[in-house]
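pls design
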C-alpha cells in the first residue's frame, strides 16, 4: 500500500539523525544497538548517534507511526530486553521524500558550482 502523499509531507523534512535511523530500518528490523551499528557502519563513523538521541527519536517516530515495534526476527537472539523496530509504509515514504529533497539540494549546489558535476565514468 502506497503511503498518502499528504501524510508523508506532514512529516518532512526530517533531521539528519532521524534520516539515518529511517535508512537503518529500510532493509530489516533492528533493535537500538543494531540501528547505532548500522548508522556507524554506513557513515564510516561520521554520524554518531547518542543513546538519548536514538531513543528519543524512536519514541517520536513510533508516536508519528513512521516505525513500529515488531516481534524478534527469526534467527535473532531471544533477549527480552531488545525491542525491534520496522519502518511503516509511511516511514518508508518519508525516507524516500527526504532523499529526494536532499538530492534536489545537491543538484542546486552543482548548478551553482559549489559541487563538481558527477563523474560520468564512475
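designed seq:
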Amino acid at each position: 500500500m502506497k503511503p498518502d502523499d499528504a501524510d508523508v509531507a506532514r512529516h518532512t523534512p526530517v533531521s539528519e539523525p532521524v534520516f539515518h535511523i529511517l535508512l537503518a530500518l529500510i532493509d530489516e528490523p533492528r533493535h537500538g544497538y543494531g540501528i547505532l551499528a548500522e548508522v556507524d557502519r554506513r557513515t564510516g563513523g561520521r554520524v554518531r548517534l547518542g543513546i538519548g538521541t536514538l531513543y528519543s527519536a524512536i519514541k517520536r517516530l513510533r508516536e508519528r507511526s513512521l516505525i513500529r515495534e515488531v516481534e524478534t526476527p527469526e534467527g535473532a537472539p531471544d533477549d527480552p530486553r531488545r525491542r525491534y523496530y520496522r519502518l511503516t509504509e509511511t516511514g518508508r515514504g518519508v525516507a524516500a521524500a527526504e532523499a529526494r529533497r536532499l538530492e534536489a539540494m545537491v543538484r542546486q549546489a552543482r548548478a551553482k558550482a559549489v559541487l563538481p558535476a558527477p563523474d560520468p565514468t564512475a
